[in-house]
Design brief:
By secondary structure, the protein is an all-alpha fold. The protein has one domain: Rhopdopsin 7-helix transmembrane proteins (Up-down Bundle), CATH 1.20.1070.10. The chain has eleven helices and no strands. It is globular, with a radius of gyration of 21 Å. The relative contact order is 0.14.
């Protein structure tokens, strides 16, 4: 193995270990912060969807990063048979990534309804209905995962393309509408004589927009790599390292989401600080 490739593999190993620990801690902290919120705020659907997304992001973190670490170790040891099995496990665990993306889509829909159809959002939208919509959306990636296992019907790369071709347009529509109303409200705030839309919580909308933007950015390298491998059919060590890098960067999204929510949401940030302080006090008492 080339020395440069070996050094990159070690660095990838360290990065995945760091994001495994950070992702587990931050996603659990989001969930704890949600349940620590005052009951009045806990009932809000925007906070509920943040918690749901963090649950699926937690599943991504505890599966995908460790599997990438295992694949790196096996690749360095050149254990091809076991590596093939690890790749199958990674393919199955990618379903959690799809679930996380679907949860972010449902969050976008919830924010869109709250901004453009507030009466329906307030009177008709409930946690149960959001979870039902999420369960229905889960059927699509589950079917794709089944028909692509061991290239049963289509390849894994083709699954990625189909998934994002289907999911990307609704993301664009809902978040474009959120961006437009967010910009309008900001203009209204700057001009106090106009009050239309001033009731909207801009931070809730902006956190959703940032999460979607982050999702797009971390998956751009993966699509470039898919396009390159389709064109070149390369199996070199450099291509394999690039595949590890794109997978690592894509999985980072499940940790970055937490940072966005804590940055943009005062309530979660306050409850998160309380939870960290409580953990510190508990550790001091244990010692």
């Amino acid at each position: 193995m080339d020395l440069k490739v070996y050094v990159q593999s070690i660095f990838l190993f360290v990065v995945n270990v760091i994001f495994t620990c950070a992702g587990i801690f931050l996603n659990l902290l989001v969930v704890v912060s949600f349940w620590s919120c005052p009951p009045r705020l806990k009932k809000k659907l925007c906070y509920f969807m943040i918690m749901v997304l963090s649950v699926f992001d937690f599943l991504v973190v505890i599966t995908n990063h460790p599997i990438l670490i295992l694949r790196l170790v096996l690749w360095l040891k050149e254990e091809d048979d076991v590596l093939a099995m690890a790749q199958i496990y990674e393919h199955i665990s990618s379903v959690f990534v799809a679930f996380s993306i679907m949860a972010l889509l449902v969050m976008s829909i919830e924010r869109y309804l709250g901004a453009y159809h507030p009466f329906f959002h307030r009177k008709s939208l409930t946690r149960r209905r959001l979870l039902t919509l999420l369960a229905v959306l889960f059927i699509f990636p589950s079917v794709l995962a089944i028909i692509s296992t061991n290239n049963l019907v289509i390849s894994y790369a083709m699954v990625l393309i189909i998934f994002f071709v289907v999911v990307f347009p609704p993301f664009v529509f809902f978040n474009y509408k959120l961006f437009m109303i967010s910009r309008k409200v900001r203009r209204d705030i700057a001009r106090p004589s106009e009050t239309s839309g001033a009731h909207l919580n801009i931070r809730n909308i902006s956190s959703c927009l940032l999460s979607v933007g982050c999702l797009v950015l971390v998956y751009i390298p993966a699509f470039f790599l898919i396009a390159f491998t389709f064109a070149e059919k390369s199996t070199s060590e450099n291509t394999k390292v690039a595949n590890f890098w794109t997978s690592t960067v894509a999985n980072m999204n499940s940790t970055l989401n937490c940072l966005i929510f804590f940055w943009k949401n005062d309530v979660l940030r306050r409850e998160g600080k309380k939870a960290i302080k409580a953990m510190k006090d508990h550790l001091k008492c244990s010692c």
